[in-house]
Batch of 2 targets.
Target 1
Amino acid sequence: MSSSRFVITVIGIDRVGIVAGITAVMAKHNVNIVDISQTIMQDLFTMIMLAEVKDATFDLSAFQNSMTEEGRRLGVEVKVQHEDAFTCMHRI
């Protein structure tokens, strides 16, 4: 893995427990929040995080699956993208 940083986006209808649920999964996988922005627009919850992991044996696929599963449980959409992929996709 060339970089250990990830962009995580969370979007959905606001409800109690979204941040707690998402960050619990991150803690379970030893993923640290580097930067975070969260906004509620009327009843729409949006959050974007830059996160990192220092474990060379980190399983990105397992982490993505866990985050997707937690998102389903919470009723929100969660995307986890490796920073390199995110940077390439959004380069002008």
Target 2
Amino acid sequence: MSSPFKAYDIRGRIPSEINVPFAYHFAQATRKLLSPSSVVVGHDMRKESPALAAALIQGLLDSGVSVLPVGRCGTEEVYFHTARSGADAGLMVTASHNPPDYNGIKMVLHDAAAATTDNAFGPIEKLMNSGEALATVDDYAKRGQLHGEQDRSAYIDRLLEEVSDLDLKPMKIVCHAGNGCAGPIIDLLEKHLPFQFIKIDHEPDPDLPNGVPNPLLPEKREKASKAVVEHGADLAIAWDGDFDRCFLYDHKGRFVEGYYLVGLIAKRMLAKEPGATILYDPRMTWNTIDIVEKADGIAKPCRTGHAFFKKMMREENAIYGGEMSAHHYFRDFSYCDSGMITWLAVIAELHATGASLADLLEEMISAFPCSGEINFTVADPKAVQERVSEHFMRQNPTIETIDGLGMAFGDWRFNLRASNTEPLMRLNVESRGDRKLLDARVAELRALIDADGNAG
């Protein structure tokens, strides 16, 4: 049986790897390791999530830790309440976009700082596997206090700050929540915004009747894409189950590559704070660097993964950091990722420029066309990377090693890296305004990689 302890969180099958006793034991180990006085706990819409959250809460209370429950929510709400309340940690029960028979736990530390293998998950796993008895308090008076469910109004107010400086015009927006947790937040925001929301699969549903919400999968994009055209909407928004990732479609129904969203949001953030630092992931970079430098900002690469971004965001005091995988981090949201601030920032940029999302997208695609992320299952990732490197070294590229293998040439570049969470190799290619060159290089790289595997 594989361990549910992963690089950035807990994820495993129900009930063989994650179950109520596991959650209770995890809470006890958290108390032993971190000695928290209070912890925020929330959960997503999955069938087992309320019971797992209840077990976490019970384990914390029995260990003398007070709990601030959020109830059913998005992961970013746990981040928000952990930072706002001054709690020592936050725990979110969610499997995000994993299959229906999975669940998991995401964790942040004080001030919503990232929990990692080194500072949390590794030591907790060791404690849980040690056989050491993790005692509960022996006096009822020493049990933790269970506070009332956290008020959402402060969180909603924080989201609305993103557009508070603008005279918002009416818009028609398709919202595809995928029966995840985003729908109720849109309902709360709707009262304050001059937008008409067209809601698809809106209500949270533990049975996931339309499958797991994961708009990164092409087959999950059709509903939002069709709806935006059918309703004559300005754009569409879709989220994963715990809505820490946000995806957009323009009025033509085109899915917007996360890469271009990074540049778009960076431009908005630099309008608010000229000269600020922007972080970007190294998979595709030229569009972001171009936009940031034209806006007199400072663009810096960061290794892919939320723990790396949250750490470097703090170190650099970066106002914004974006990954093309749809994680967007905001300094004024405790350096955490938010799937709600993301789309509000895009709306703000559209209002500030007067342009449509399609117009802004065309401009970026024309300047820096990209392949999108292409996944490969390979037998030996290291051998594939070495073969690709050797093939292109004769062309004297600039080598980028911050995350995987990156090679930049005068008019095109690529990044090839192994996934942190799945048995895949991920390829991203871009060019400077040359679609034919891009297609040719993608075909060349496919042939090199497919010698050991199959494109996904």
